[in-house]
TrEMBL record:
GO molecular function annotations of the record: L-amino acid transmembrane transporter activity
Upper lineage: Eukaryota, Viridiplantae, Streptophyta, Embryophyta, Tracheophyta
Pfam family, one: Aa_trans
PANTHER family: AMINO ACID TRANSPORTER, AMINO ACID TRANSPORTER TRANSMEMBRANE DOMAIN-CONTAINING PROTEIN
Chief location category: membrane
Family annotation (InterPro entries): AA_transpt_TM
Name of the protein this chain belongs to: Amino acid transporter ANT1 isoform X2
UniProt entry keywords in alphabetical sequence: Amino-acid transport, Membrane, Transmembrane, Transmembrane helix, Transport
Residue intervals passing through the bilayer: 63-83, 95-116, 168-188, 200-223, 243-268, 289-309, 315-337, 349-368
Compartments, record wording: Membrane
Membrane topology summary: Multi-pass membrane protein
Amino acid sequence: MRLRLLDGLLGCLGLLSLVYLPTIACSYLSVTCRESLASEETLGESITYGELGYRAFGKTGRFVTEVIIVVAQCAGSIAYLVFIGQNIDSVFPDLGLSLASYVFMLVPVEIGLTWIGSLSALAPFSIFADVCNVLAMGIVVKEDVQLAIEGGFSFGERTTITSNIGGLPFAAGMAIFCFEGFGMTLALENSMQDRAKFPILLAQTFGGITLVYILFGFSGYMAFGEETRDIVTLNLPRNWSSIAVQVGLCLGLMFTFPIMLHPVNEIVEEKLTKIICRNNYDSTRLRSVDIYISRAIVVVVLAVVASFVPQFGIFASFVGSTLCAMLSFVLPATFHLKLFGSSLRFWQKALDSIVLFCGLFFAVYGTYNAIVGV
């Protein structure tokens, strides 16, 4: 039993480490590129991912980069809505409402939250969301451990190593999706008062999140085995503690939703501002109205898409395998090679190239695997 416990922990640790290490490395690459370009007097401090794409590959680079960011962040936000909707449906099964009904109940709240302009103003909501998530995860782990101990199953039934590797791309896609906030890296670094502390803070945060994911996933699988659902809270027994967990996680994601949309709003509003200025409109008043309208439209569109998502797990793995892999691995490595290739050492070029090609391969294969699995 101890060997199987150890194997399970090592398996979780190995898979997430394969995602954590390149993710944190690519985050540093993005920050390094931003800092190098920001030091140029003509560019100032407002360096975004789109600006990195422009400096590397011109207008095409900016367009492709911003499209990937918008679609990736929107897909992550859609996954949040699906998660919340399915959990609310589990809490109130007797109502007989559809997933779309629960999702659209969130729309007014999310629109109001997205109207909050800055990340600093969203900080209290983010802290509250973190508290809800931590408490809920703690209760889930406690329930899982209790079920594992009292369930009367044999640890021998928990397969830690399998000859069937077909599920690895799905699992890896889910692991990458766990770090789907990569598009927030530059925005968060830009919002800090002391940017010099950002790399250390980022490493500590990613490390802590990785440990939580390992404990969360391992304890859930030990409790439910092959019957573990893509949303593990749906496995929990019907009692008050389980309902508290689901409500807590839903509140946490509800208040995290506007933060996920922040990069999307930045890109959309930048385009709107250019259109307004180009047509010589009253930019101050019209821009404020357009911002509110555009943010509301984005939320409504995402809610519509979320109502048609068939399964949370397949959708999350697909997003992780494609968009998140491109955003987290391919783009940072490509920018670093293009912008600083002549000054890089051989091992740096080799490392960037490995990350780039592995990211592309995984994106292609992961996409195929996710489509076949639908």
